[in-house]
Amino acid sequence: MSFPIINKALLDELDKRFPERSAEIEWTEKEVWHRAGQRYVIRFLKAQFDRQNADSLNQKALPPNV
Question: How far is CA 14 from CA 7, 34, 47, in A?
Fold first, then answer.
């Protein structure tokens, strides 16, 4: 299944707005799970971005009609 192309600028901005961090003691359990979900999505998008870039590098390395 194909995934839409991920824009690096958007990914970088999401990473800034929802940084990877440890839970704070004053956060409620609901807030901890909510923030964990946000980061899960960003980690998923980063993995897709890395996969897309690896695929594009591999395609450029192959000669035409291969």
Answer: 11, 15, 14
Say how many C-beta atoms besides its own lie within 10 A of residue 60's C-beta. 7
Provide the mean pLDDT of the chain. Answer: 88
pLDDT score of 33: 98
pTM of the complete model:
0.77
Tokens of 48: 């897709």
For every residue of 8-47, which 3-state class applies, written as one string? HHHHHHHHHHCCCCCCCCCCCHHHHHHHHHHHHHHHHHHH
